[in-house]
Amino acid sequence: IITGKKIGCICITERKHGSDAVNMETKVIDKEDHLIFTGEKLYTTNGPVADYFIVYGVSDVSDPRGTMYQAIAERGHEGLITNRLGIQSVPRVQIGQTLFNSVKIPRENILGGKGQGYKNLFSGLVAERCSIIGSSLGIGWLTAITGLIYTNLRTQFNRPLYDFQGVSFPQTQNFIELMAATELGFKSASEYNKTIDRKHFDQQKFVKYNAAFSSGTKYLASHLAQKISYETQQLCGGIAFTDNLRIDKALEVAKVQEIIGGARNIQL
Ligand SMILES: Cc1cc2nc3c(=O)[nH]c(=O)nc-3n(C[C@H](O)[C@H](O)[C@H](O)COP(=O)(O)OP(=O)(O)OC[C@H]3O[C@@H](n4cnc5c(N)ncnc54)[C@H](O)[C@@H]3O)c2cc1C
């Protein structure tokens, strides 16, 4: 996966359990030498083209925290079926439905045994949120700088648009907020780095702090990306809706950042 020769995906979300992912219904039966997974996962990014599927399920739905497993299913495992969903905001990304029809996963593919799957789910979310912070900041800087260049080049009333305070002040505010969010993004990543070398990994307090910090920064950065691309679209006028500037596309992708890895409202 790291070399890019194989594609991986993560299967958490289900039809009835999105924000409430912990109460998932994908069923695990623990046999001596393998696990059997049965359930439906939705919105699996890369699912339709994936070679490896990190999947979560529970052996007792009344105790998901104590009985959650995490394992790797592989393309070709009997009963594993993927279908593509049409997601208009990101039409080129392969996002899908992943069906586990009594899929037998060998014991050596277990990443988190009974109960450990739950802990792995949450520590994995920290890494995911750090990456969403990165993509959100990327969208924010891309649109803010595009807007800055365009409003300096475009003239109306015989002056560059940027000469008008109604155009320059909102952009200045965007840059101030972006700089602050970027600092928080670096801080989230460096805090997460500490868990990679495992020095602090088992300290429950530290893990909770890390989860809260990355979640809060993801909330802020993704919302900011959406706000800045929307504002920039407004300040650039009609051309922002064309593929000359692609601000409209950036706005679509920014909106997705607010949903993935934990939707905005649930993060509050
Ligand atoms: C493009 C895309 C890619 C994705 N990729 C993946 C993937 O690779 N793997 C995967 O497993 N999932 C993936 N997802 C799913 C994503 O994680 C979920 O869509 C997300 O967690 C929200 O779940 P939901 O859609 O069921 O919304 P719901 O849980 O139904 O929530 C709807 C709204 O209600 C709010 N809400 C819900 N509960 C509360 C609460 N208690 N308090 C306040 N507000 C609340 C939410 O914030 C949201 O605004 C992807 C989704 C998209 C759109």
From TrEMBL:
Family annotation (Gene3D superfamilies): Butyryl-CoA Dehydrogenase, subunit A, domain 2, Butyryl-CoA Dehydrogenase, subunit A, domain 3
Membrane listed as a keyword: no
Keywords per UniProt: FAD, Flavoprotein
Transmembrane regions listed in the UniProt entry: none
Stretches assigned to the Acyl-CoA oxidase/dehydrogenase middle domain: 9-82
PANTHER family in the cross-refs: ACYL-COA DEHYDROGENASE, ISOVALERYL-COA DEHYDROGENASE, MITOCHONDRIAL-RELATED
Protein name as it appears in the record: Acyl-CoA oxidase/dehydrogenase middle domain-containing protein
Taxonomy of the source species: unclassified sequences, metagenomes, ecological metagenomes
